[in-house]
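Hey, can you fold this?
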Amino acid sequence: MGGGVLTVTSRALQQLASLLLERAGLKITPDGYHSLRLALSTRMPLMGVVDPEEYLRRLRSDENELRALLPLVTVGHTEFFRDPKQFQALEQRILPEALQRARREYRKVSIWSAGCATGEEPYSLAMVLVELGALSIEVDLWATDLNVAAVEAARQGRFSARRLAGMSQERRNRFFRPVEDGYEVAPLLKDYVRFDGQNLAVASFDKVQPESLDLILCRNVIIYFDLPTIRALMDRFLTALRPGGLLLLGYSESLFKVYDRFEMVEVDGAFVYRRPKDLAEPRPGIRPMSFFELPVIQTQSSSTTVEEGPAVLPATRSLRETLEVSPAVQRTVEVPTVKVEPPREPKSKPRRPSRSLKLSPEERLNAAVRMIERGDFVSAVSTLEHLLADEPGHLDGLLTLGNLYSLTGRVEDARETFAQAIAREPLCVEARVFGGLAELQAGHLVAARSELGKALFLEPTLAIGHYLVAQVHERLVDHEAARRSYRNAISQLRFSQRPLAGHYPDLPDSAESISRAARYALAALEEAP
C-alpha cells in the first residue's frame, strides 16, 4: 500500500464504524472516515492483510487487534489551532521569545510537534511563525507521528473545507489554495515543516540532539501510554530541551505526581512545563501515584480471559446499596459506603477564587477534592465548574464533576459531563466506568452494564470494572453472572491496577480493598441457593 491512504468502500467503513461504536462506544461519523482509512493503512500491512473485508472479519473475532486499532483511529482527531488558550500563549509570548532568543544566538528556532497526526498542529505553528516574520531558513519545525499513513497525508497537506471551517478567511486565503476536494497547503507553508515517522516509546531518539529544542508539543498523546512509558518519555524530552525550553501537553494531560523534574509555569493563562535552567539530578525511588494520574489503554494478550454473563433487565437500587457487598456479609466486612445529603443552598454564592492567586489546575482540583472529603459538595461543584470554565478539557475536573452531579442526583448533568470527557478523549476508560456507576446508582441497569462493558473492552484487566459489573448482576438477582464477574475482579488483580483519573469518594481503589470486597461478596453468593 506504499504508506498512502487506503481505498476502502463506504460499506466497509460503515461496518467498521458500527463495530467501534458497539464494542468501545467510539462514535465515528462519515466526516471522520478519513481517520479510519489512515488507521487501516497502518494496521493491515502489519497483520499481513491486503483485503479490507478480510481485515474486518478478523476484527470481529480478534478483540486484541481491535484494541490495537483504536488509538490510531483517535489520533486522527485533531484540528487547526486546537486549544485556543495555548495558541494564544504561543502567538503572544512563547514563539516570539523563542524566535528572538534564537536570533540572538545565531541559530534556528527548533520545535518538535510530537504526535502531529495529519498535520494540523505543525501547519498552525508554521502560520504563526510566518505572521511573526520568521523566514523558513530560521525555523526547524519537525513534525512526527507513529502512524506513517497520517504522516504521508500531512506531507500532502490536503484538507476538506470542513476542517478549515474555524479558520479566519485571511489565513485561509494566505496559506491555502483551493483544489478539487477542498484546500491544499500553499508551498510557502510547506517549506517550514519537515515530516517524519517516529515512535515516542523507543528507548532513545537518534534524530534529536541533547539540549537542541526550544519547544516540544506533545498534546493528547501520552494519555495512551502507561506510567513507565510516560516517565521514560519525559526523561528523553527533558534531555532534548534547552535549559528553559518548554513542553506543552494537552489540557487533559498532567504530570502531577507522575514526573517532577519539569517546572509548571503559567504563560498568558496557559499552564506549560519548563525545563529548569539548573537541572537537578533525578530523585531516587518511585514517585507516588494517585487518582490524578493519566488514564492508560492497555492491550492485553489473548491469555487474558474474562467470563461473560447474560444480558440484564432494568431495576432500581439506592446509592448505599450500589457500593455495598452482599447483604449476607454486611455484618462481617467493613464495606465502602457513600453518605450523601441533599445539597443545601448556600446563604451566599460561593466566591470564585481570585485569579491573582494563579493556582494551577491541579491545585484547584485538589481544593475541590478536599471540599468533597469534608462533605461540602456545593462548594466543590462551584470550584470545579469554575475550573472547567477556564480549562474546558481538563479531564480530571470533568470526571470529578460528573461524579458529583451523579452523587447529588443530577443524572442528566452527569451524563453530559461524561460525554464531554469522551468527546475530549474518546478512549477514556474512566468516563465509561463512572458513567456506568452513575447509571447503576440511578437504577438504569441496562445502561450501566453497557457503559461498564465498554470500559472492560478497552481495559480488560480493570478489576474495579468487573466488581461493578458484578454489582449490576446482583441487583438483578442473577447470582451466577455475579459470581463470574466477582471471580474476574479477583483474577485481574494479578495485573498491576492503576489509579483512576478523577475522584469518587469511598470507591474501592486499592487491590486490597477490591479483593476483600469481591471475596466476601463471592463467599456470600456461593452460600446462596
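Oh, and this one too while you're at it.
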Amino acid sequence: MRPEILFPLFAPSSSLKGVGPRLAPLLDRLAGPRVRDVLFLTPQRLVRRSRSSVAAAQEETAHIFDLVIDNHLASQRPGQPWRIRAHDDTGFVHLVFFGGYGQSLEKQHPPGSRRCVSGRVERFGVQLQITHPDYIVPPERAAEIPEVEAIYPATAGLAPRVVRKLALEALARTPELPEWQDAAWMKREAFPAWRAALEGLHGPVSEADLSPASPARRRLAYDELLAHQLALAIRRADRRRFPAAPVPAGEMADRLEAALPFKLTGAQIRTLSEIRGDLQSGERMARLVQGDVGSGKTVVAMLAMSDIAAAGRQSVLMAPTEILARQHFETLRGPLEALGVQVVLLTGRDKGNPRAAKLTALANGSAAVAVGTHALFQDDVVFQDLALAVIDEQHRFGVNERRRLLAKGPDTHMLVMSATPIPRTLELTAFGDLDISRIDEKPPGRTPVATRAVPASRTAEVVERLRAAAAGGAQAFWICPLVAESEESDLAAAEKRAVDLRAVLGTEVGLIHGQMKSDAKDAVMAQFAEGRLPLLVATTVVEVGVDVPNASIMVIEQAERFGLAQLHQLRGRVGRGRRESACILLYDPPLTETGQKRLDILRRTDDGFLIAEKDLELRGGGDPLGLRQSGLPAYRLADPAAHRDLIAVAADDARLILARDPTLENPRGQALQVLQALFDWPVGATGETD
C-alpha cells in the first residue's frame, strides 16, 4: 500500500498544467507516466545570458537584446528561412526562423514594435544573426528571460523549456517527506535535506551544481542507491526463509571430472566448491557465476548438475537463443549420457510427437537434465522434481520468465551465468541479492588472440589476408558496425559488405542479421559452424555466440564505435581451436584520445575483468560497457560510475538497517518505507530483480 503522502507524486503526469492529449504521450516517452518521473528528470546543461548591445555582442554566445523590429524578409523559395531584421542604436541583427510559419511571426511582431530578444549569436557572412531565438517578448515581459536557465532533455514536439516548466511544477507539488538518512552520515557528507536537494537539482546556478559530485546530486543518488540496496537485501533475507533439501556432492561428479580431456582451473574448482556449499546449506541457492567467454562456466554448471542427478533430482539450463541452447546441449549431452544421465533439448521448434516424448521424459523423471530456450517455462513443461535452474546470460530474460522457470520445482536453486565482466565496484548494483563467483582464469590450451588496430584505408590488405586464410581452410567473422540508430541501415551496410567480399574473395559468404527468421539464421550459423562457409558477415544485433573452433580471424569494422566490453566479447569468438588467431580492429582515423586508449587496452590484455575496470575509468558516467544490456538497473538519479563510491556504503547501510529493524518499524524504518515506495523497486522472495 503506497503511503498517502506520496499520492501527489504518483498522480499521472498528464495532470500537470498544460499537458493535454498531444503532450501526454510525448512526456510519457521522455520521462514516464507519473509526476514523480518528471520530478526526477535531470537538467543537462546551463545557458547563461548577458545583456548586450548588437555592436558589443560576442559570437557563439547567448545574449539578451533590446531591439526594434525593422521588417520581415519572406523566404523566396522552399527551404529558405523567414528572416526578421531588427536593430538597436548600435547595429542590425537578423532573427532567422525555419519551418514556414512566417505569416504568424509578422502578426506577432509587426515592424516598429520593440522586443526583448535572446539567443545564441552567430555570424552569417557579414551579418549577425540568431537562429530561432530562445525568447522574443515585449519589453514589459522582459523579466521572463532568465539570465541562467537549466536546459532539460527534450523530444520532438516537446521543447526543453516546456519540460523545464513541467519539472518545476512537479517540484512545486512535491511534499516534505520524513528524513530516512542517518543524521551522522548526512553531516559527514554535507547532504542537504531531500526536498532541498531537489530544489538544487532543478535550480542550478553554476555548472558545478550539475555535476554528479555536487552535494544535492550525491544526496539524491544515495537515496536511490539505498532504496535499491534495501530492496535487494530484503529479497535476500526473504529467500533465506525458504528451505531447500541439501544436495551432497556426488561420486558421479568425480567420475565426470576425471573423464574430462582437461583439468579444471583453480577458479573453476573454487567456483564449484562455492556452488556445492550452497547446495548443501539447506537454503535456496541464488548465485551468479561471472567468467569471460571460454572460461569454462558451462563445465562447472555441468558438474553441479551431475550432483543433482546423483541425488535423483532434475536440472534445467535455459539459454536466450536456440543457437546457444544447442551449443550447451552438445557440450552436456556426451559427458552426462556416458554416465547414464539422459539430457533433452527443448526449443520452440519441437512439435508433435517428438515434443510430447520429451515432455513425458521430464514429467516422469527419466530425463534428469533439460536444455532449451524460452520453451522451457511454458505451462505444459512439467518436471518430476526440478532442483536446479541454470540461466545463461540472465539479463536477456524478463523477471517473470525466470520466475516461471524457478516455480517449476518445489525448492529450485538458481545459478545464473554471465560472460559480460562487470567491474567489482558495480557488482552490487546489478547483483546485490546474489552470491557471486568469478572464474577469472582461462583454461590451458586456449590460443592467444593477436589483436591489431588497422586504419580503414588498409581494408584491402585485410581482405587479402582473409583470402589467404580461407585458402588454407580457416574461417573468419566480419562484424559490421552500428551505422545509424536503425536496423535497416545496419542491414544495408552488412549486405553491401557481404556482396563486396563475395566478389573479391570469389567464395560463398554467409550473412546473418536481426531481420532474418530464426530458422534461416540458424541454418546459416549451422553452415558456418560445420565449416561450409569460410566467412560470416554479421550485424551488431545478432548474437554470434556459436562455438566455431576453426574460426581464427575476427574483423570488426569501425571498431571505434563499439564499447570495450563488446569488442572483447566479439574477440572471444576466435582463438578456440589450434590455429593462430587474430582480431583486426578496423577504425576510421583520426581517433579521439579515449578511442585510442580503448583500442590500446584491448591490444594489451585479454583479461575481461581488467578491461571492464579500465573501460569504467575511461568512460566515467553514462552507460559504462553498455551495461544496461548486461544487468545493471536503469537508475534515474544515480550514475553507477560517478557514484560508485556510494554503492558499497548503501549496501552496508541496508544490511545494518535490516539487522537492527527487520520489519522497518522504528521511526527511521517507517521513513525508509516511504523511500522504498518512492522508488518502487520490486520486492519478492525469489531472488529476482528487475
